[in-house]
Specification:
CATH topology of the largest domain: Purple Acid Phosphatase, chain A, domain 2
Number of strands: 27
Number of helices: 8
Distance between the termini: 68 Å
Strand content: 25-35%
Radius of gyration: 22 Å
Length: 475
């Protein structure tokens, strides 16, 4: 019988000002060559592990055993201890706003309770001349900080990160772009108190599948597809910082032969995080993914689904045009009325304005652009094009950030139509800080030779270099 190795994972799957959604799971590897090589087990082969399983991770995964989640304050005092027997995730409630905590998960198996993912962990890394599962080394640091009270101003600045078009995976050595940006993101979390991560879509790609053509490779519709694209590269980020996704064309079956929406909902714990939010007007789901959340009273993030629904809606239109979502968008983007300044930040996949080189301005978004303007939006985040672009039009700045895993190196050619101010064809993520009425955006690339964060070089449409961050201000 073959030997199997189980590598456990932890995930801070959701966070509010008073609660945290803690999740746990594992991936299985077949041990080969006397422990020198490990091969990731496909979901279809999990029946061969001991004990047999049908899934490994995500909101719907079957229980690994009775579990206990323990949350402690900064002094090490246990402030909450909750149990779970049905699933591998649990909300911990009764926490204080804007407060730092640590957590542990204990799972009982074979009559003995053990800490889940305690001690040094094995990670997918370069070993010799190829990539593989390395020796046990880096342990988890399970620390998080709750959000501020959404009815009160945040007590200080907030820094968040944005990644887009990242789901290519880190399986092979040549997949170094996503791996390098993930390492830089981890460093930013450690050094800049990053409180959350937004995605601008294409969270996982199908390898070679297109327009219904049957091919092999990762599809995104099984748990094992997510190991290389999400759980491993961002392992030491997602255990500390919540990730808020939006849906891209590669996630929704618009470009590929399979729709990965259900797996995206499962691995980002979407239903568990927005339960009850639809009734409160803070989410609109099915078809599509629309939701909003606050960080203090002065910042609100708005997820807008710009993908197409291939079955139940007009394929010529995008989901934000669906009549079901009109009430949500009207509530999330009310006309500016001179009230207290609020940073309303929509994030989506398809860019309203894009200079190329492959894509141009997205058709059908004109009405949504007008709604952004009426609502006093200052910044719109998107992906889709695999580079970085900054544009400004009628008082709204638009940033394309689609270079966290793939890069399109060609030079854009539609600068005038896209109102472009600067651009760069570099692997990157955005590091954004809001301090009162002032916002600073940095496009950060791979770590420099000294292991420090480094901004990518940008240039204007005329080719002149553009230095420094993008700075925006509310009136």
């Amino acid at each position: 019988m073959p030997d199997y190795y189980s590598e456990p994972f932890l995930n801070l799957a959701g966070l509010t000002h008073k609660s945290a959604l803690v999740a746990w799971g594992a991936f299985y590897f077949r041990v080969k060559d006397s422990g020198k090589e490990f091969k990731l087990v496909d979901d279809d082969d999990l029946r061969n592990v001991h004990p047999p399983r049908a899934d490994s991770i995500g909101a719907s995964s079957k229980s690994y055993g009775p579990a206990r989640v323990e949350v402690s304050d900064a002094a090490g005092n246990v402030v909450a201890s909750v149990t779970e027997t049905e699933r591998n995730h649990r909300w911990v409630t009764g926490l204080e706003p804007d407060t730092e905590y640590t957590y542990k998960v204990f799972v009982k198996s074979g009559g003995q309770e053990e800490e889940w993912a305690g001690g040094p962990r094995r990670n997918w890394e370069r070993a010799g001349d190829k990539m593989g599962l390395g020796p046990k080394s880096k342990p988890y640091v399970n620390r998080f900080r709750t959000f501020p009270d959404p009815t009160r101003p945040a007590p200080g600045p907030v820094t968040f990160a944005v990644i887009g078009d990242f789901g290519v995976g880190v399986r092979k050595d040549e997949d170094r772009g996503q791996r390098q940006i993930a390492a830089a993101l981890e460093r930013a979390v450690e050094e800049h108190d990053v409180r959350l991560v937004l995605t601008t879509g294409d969270n996982i790609y199908r390898a070679g599948g297109f327009l219904g053509l049957p091919v092999g490779g990762d599809t995104g519709d099984e748990d094992d597809d997510w190991y290389f694209t999400y759980y491993q590269p961002y392992r030491y980020v997602i255990n500390r910082v919540p990730v808020f996704p939006t849906i891209g064309n590669h996630d929704a079956g618009e470009t590929e032969s399979r729709d990965d929406r259900s797996q995206l909902f499962d691995n980002f714990y979407v239903n568990e995080r927005v339960a009850g939010e639809e009734a409160a007007g803070r989410a609109s789901i099915g078809p599509g993914l629309f939701y909003r959340f606050r960080f203090g009273s002065g910042v609100e993030f708005i997820c807008v689904d710009t993908s197409k629904e291939p079955e139940s809606f007009d394929r010529r239109k995008r989901l934000f045009e669906h009549p079901k979502h009109k009430e949500f968008l009207d509530a999330a983007l009310p006309a500016a009325n001179g009230g207290p300044p609020v940073w309303r930040i929509p994030f989506c996949h398809h860019p309203p304005f894009c200079a190329g080189p492959k894509y141009g301005n997205t058709d059908g978004m004109e009405g949504l652009v007008e709604q952004f303007e009426r609502a006093g939006v200052r910044l719109v985040l998107s992906g889709h094009e695999h580079n970085c672009q900054h544009a400004s039009h009628r008082g709204v700045d638009y940033v394309v950030t689609g270079g966290a895993g793939k890069i399109r190196s060609g030079e854009p050619g539609k600068f005038d139509a896209a109102h472009t101010l600067s651009w760069a064809a570099e692997y990157h993520f955005l590091l954004v800080t809001i301090d009162g009425k002032r916002m600073t955006l940095r496009a950060v690339g791979a770590l420099d030779g000294g292991g420090k964060l480094a901004d990518i070089p940008r240039k204007a449409p005329d080719g002149k270099p553009v230095s420094g961050p993008v700075v925006l201000e509310l009136p």
